[in-house]
Every structure is written in C-alpha cells, then in structure tokens.
Design goal:
InterPro entries: 2Fe-2S-bd, 2Fe-2S-bd_dom_sf, 2Fe-2S_ferredoxin-like_sf, 2Fe-2S_ferredoxin-type, 2Fe2S_fd_BS, Aldehyde_Oxdr_Iron-Sulfur, Beta-grasp_dom_sf. Helix content is 30%, strand content 14%. The protein is globular and about 50 Å long. The protein has two domains: 73 residues, Ubiquitin-like (UB roll) (Roll), CATH 3.10.20; 85 residues, [2Fe-2S]-binding domain (DNA polymerase, domain 1, Orthogonal Bundle), CATH 1.10.150.120. α3 crosses α6. By secondary structure, the protein is of the alpha+beta class. A five-stranded mixed β-sheet has the order 2-1-5-3-4, sandwiched between helices. Bound molecules: FE2/S2 (inorganic) cluster (2 copies). The site of one FE2/S2 (inorganic) cluster (FES) has 11 residues, from loops.
C-alpha cells in the first residue's frame, strides 16, 4: 500500500509517494537523495540516522515516513552550511570530534536535540536528584555522555565529541536553531 505524503526537509517542501512500510530514513536517503542521515544498524541501536523531527531528535530508522506526513525534518545538512556552520559543526571540527565521520551527522543532530532538552530542564539518568526538574541541569561531561549515549562511534572519537558538545553548550548557542536558517526551496 502506498501513501502520498509531504515533508519539509531542511527548509525544502517535498511531496513523495512511499510504501507505507518505508522508514523516514529510507524516504530521506532513497526518495529524496538526502544522504546526511546515515544507515548504520537500521534497528534503532546506533544513532547514526538521527534527525530532528519537529525539533526533537529521533532515530529515523524507527519512524515510518507516512507517520511523519506534514512534518518538518532537519538533518545535519540543514543545521548549517560551509559558510555558516552550526556551532556544533564548528565545535566538532575544533575538537577533532570525527574520524571516519560516519556517525557525525547523527551525533550533531543528537547533540542539537539534547542541548535543547537540557535547556528545557529535562533531567537525564545522570542528573543529580537534588537538581530541580524545572532548572536546566549543568552539562557536565557525565551529563553529556549520558545524553549522547544512544549515538555510537566505531572510531572512538568520544573524547572529542564530549569536548565539542561542551564548547557548543558553553557558547549558549548549540541548540536546534543556532545555525544558518534553512532556506525555503533551497538544498
Ligand atoms: S540506523 Fe537508525 S539507529 Fe542505527
Ligand atoms: S567517527 Fe567513525 S564512526 Fe564515529
């Protein structure tokens, strides 16, 4: 069974027909040729396919494209560009947070989502119980590691990744809306 859906991907409005079993990851990569999100495990375990769906991070291999009909999707390619990199993209470069780079788009989308979650006061398993639920928790290295734990890196670039997220968090400009504004109709 097929469905006609629309998505706004990195600021570009897209109409596509998909099999209702098609994942958002496959719709992005195979239908829209947006190869920023990577397919690692295809089972929700590695985080390499992470994108922002309506501003929240999701593993796109576990979302059906038809269920995302009408939604705004931001991939790492939509967070910034070569001239105006997102603070997280710049921080990953500054701190060598990538080796092969395969996990990097998912790491950056996940970090953008988690910085917004932390700023909104969402606690993690690493948040001390005495920190109030409504206050933004301090983004210690332990907090960053816990919040990024769904994103695996086979190269072991974790030390650089933590340093990069710390830099973006300290700049106060690391969340979803900190990069170049996606251009309507542009890719
Ligand atoms: S490809 Fe989606 S979590 Fe691994
Ligand atoms: S940099 Fe190679 S998998 Fe992460």
């Amino acid at each position: 069974m097929e469905a006609d859906i629309t998505l706004t991907v990195d600021g570009r409005d897209c109409a596509l027909r998909v099999d209702t079993r098609t994942t958002l990851l496959d719709a992005l990569r195979e239908h829209l040729r947006n190869t920023a999100p990577k397919k690692g495990c295809d089972h929700g375990q590695c985080g390499s396919c992470t994108v922002l769906l309506a501003g929240r991070r999701v593993v796109s291999c576990l979302v059906l494209a038809a269920a995302a009909d009408g939604a705004e999707v931001t991939t790492s390619a939509g967070l910034g560009d070569a001239e105006h990199p997102h603070p997280l993209q710049q921080a990953f470069l500054d701190h060598d947070g990538l080796q092969c780079g395969y996990c990097t788009p998912g790491q950056i989308c996940s970090a953008a989502g988690m910085l917004d979650e932390a700023a909104a006061g969402w606690p993690s398993a690493a948040t001390p119980p005495d920190e109030g639920a409504d206050a933004a928790p301090a983004l210690t290295a332990a907090e960053i590691r816990e919040r990024m734990s769904g994103n695996l890196c086979r190269c072991g670039a974790y030390a650089g990744i933590v340093a990069a997220v710390e830099q973006a968090a300290a700049s106060g400009a690391g969340g979803v809306h900190s990069g170049a504004a996606p251009q309507k109709g542009a890719r």
